[in-house]
Amino acid sequence: xxxxxxxxxxxxxxxxxxxxxxxxxxxxxxxxxxxxxxxxxxxxxxxxxxxxxxxxxxxxxxxxxxxxxxxxxxxxxxxxxxxxxxxxxxxxxxxxxxxxxxxxxxxxxxxxxxxxxxxxxxxxxxxxxxxxxxxxxxxxxxxxxxxxxxxxxxxxxxxxxxxxxxxxxxxxxxxxxxxxxxxxxxxxxxxxxxxxxxxxxxxxxxxxxxxxxxxxxxxxxxxxxxxxxxxxxxxxxxxxxxxxxxxxxxxxxxxxxxxxxxxxxx
Length: 266
Hints:
266 residues; alpha/beta; 4-stranded parallel β-sheet
């Protein structure tokens, strides 16, 4: 297998709107190379481009899947329809791009990785390709997430998690997706990665940044980091605890149980 880096990556993911951007910035400011082509949310746009239809690879083998295969065959000269091998070859291509950019600043970097919220969606494939990868998963209060305007994952992946994305009200569907996606992501992370999996609650990062950032730094095995400087990256958004000003009567007891299952008090 072609490899470019001498270490495996550190990845950040989570349901969209759960604080992945801040965690990615903490890593970047700590010396982890997170890529050169990033959007305003610190998503690595190179890997995002490599997987424009990744959900179709995993969810089904319909027209979108066949189109993706044809595109990948043309780009990587691969003649297999096996999804694991397709994703592996795409990761190799992406790693080559990352390594070329990394070479320009490797003296200043102490590792590499990337952030896209949907990393957890392909975690099984990533863990198979990178045997020693580290993954940081962020989670935010489910009721806060239910009232978020960022529901792209629900629209794109809801069906995969057995969620009716057309359920009314939308907040119910959003909560169901939040629960199903996080439950699977956390279970897979612990099962596949063991101590190489770290769960970060967005609220803890906001209200106790020093302690939470220290956990992150210890997790990535970095000692020479200015915690006080990194704390300045954390800004508490106006949307935190927004659910407290919302009508929660649309949720039933089962919905409340889903939120408290992850340790949240409502």
